[in-house]
Structures
1.
Amino acid sequence: MTRKWPDRVDVLVVGAGPAGLSAARHLRAAGATVLLVDARAHIGYPPRCAELARGNFFEVFGFDHPPEWVRRRLRGLRNMPVLNRTATESGAAAILGRMGVTVVENCALVGLGAYDGRERPATFRYQGEAPQTRAQLVIAADGAASRVARLAGIDTRINPLETVACLAYRVVDCDLADADDIRFEYPPILNPHYFWVVPSGPREANIGLGLPMHRGHAARPILERLMAQTDSFSGGRIAQTLVGWYPSTLPLEVPYTDGLLVAGTAARFIDAELGEGIWQGAFSGRQAAEAYLRTAGRGTTAADLAPYRQLLEPMYRQLYDGYHKRRLREMRQAHG
């Protein structure tokens, strides 16, 4: 192993999606030392979801972005960006590296020690070796059913009946009914989830669906049937397939413990009604950084980190509202 591994850092961030990248950006801008690790061979790949973000996403995310990070802005939705997530996440990681963040791909956290009143020790699997570091704070941004949070004693188990499988195609050279607006359709076969057409160019779209995980095996034939039936687009060819899943449940009520904060999908920060999680990831990562900075070196016990929950309160209200709307739609569709 040729990489110089830091013995100690202020913050260890596990996971380089929107939450982890946003947290690392805001922490480093404030002068914190940061180690960012991601288990994928290449940050940003493979991409997932419809790639649609809110209009203020980049302001929350914390990065000035080059044009190639955005596939299209939708005029019908106040210029909401459709991201190129591979370019966005790999590009953000490269910027962080230039800022002085230690960024490591293809690196898995395999051990997380107890908080000793000041730090947590962490052990990794990287290039056949087991490097270690110690961090005042660990941010678990490693996705749904977070292993990192579980190692710290937070129950991240998810009821399989409250998970959603997603399948989408990036279709190019197609004719769109409206290249500046999205289409959501709610066929009973997907109850309570939906089929989407999100334009990502004048003649290009992200077309996909979500459905209960236990029916994920049926996603491809259902998607192709709905694509044939919709009037939102015609023609084109499939250039890319995107798959994923997300929790369709309430967020973790206490997303912190001694020396650790949970952010993004790892904390179930997903709008259960819409399946939206990109903005929530970036927002929670930013607030995780703020919660750490507010400790001002006093310590990172659970009591020190408790303000994180208050910083997230506006998002929690939205997530609870989305969850109950989804449940209401599910009941209405089930009863005709």
2.
Amino acid sequence: MAASLIGNDPAPSLIADIGCDHGRLICWLMHRYPHAKGIATDISLPSLKKTELLAEQEGLSDRIRCVCGDGLKALNGIRPDVLFLCGMGGELIRDILDRAEEPLGGAGTAVLQPMSGTEELREYLYANGYRVISDRIVKESGRYYQVFSVRWDGTRDRLPEGFPGGLFSIGYRSYADRDPLYREYLMFLMSRLKRNLEKAAGCGGEQGLRTQLELLTSADFGDGERNEK
């Protein structure tokens, strides 16, 4: 799903996978885009070695450059067409983007897949001029994942009609596009919040949970058109 959010017009010529770990994504991308080159980075040298080994096994060593380094600094001024930040915490993705010398490290598009901290990442993107291009929900082995692509133009994205401001646990683009798993995932989040509210009864965090639940409830499907505001 992450790879599909690049689009094919035009096909990328240079792709960067930041925090590549085992290297499966960058190798898969090289097969999907046979004319592209790849840069795989990771702060962990043992993880990077796994990528180098997989690239060799897949016959891609001449197309994938592996660099050990921290975040977008590892690109050392190279500006990819697309970069991937997948399989890490949303707060870490946010911090990597925030430390970059220029938005997205000069890339035109970034594909993001946070494992946690989705709210914090989405709030940062919305507040800092990033526009969400595509936003998908994936369910695998009973777990939900949110995968979205963004670009930067310095202007705040417009929210779809009916989507409550301040809600960042679910994407407004998946809401507007009526992602097939949107309602199912929404019900999952609401159920989880209700359980957390029961556990938090009488505690200091109860009001915050109630506010989140109210926002999720108001983001349910309506009958109106999906005009943007």
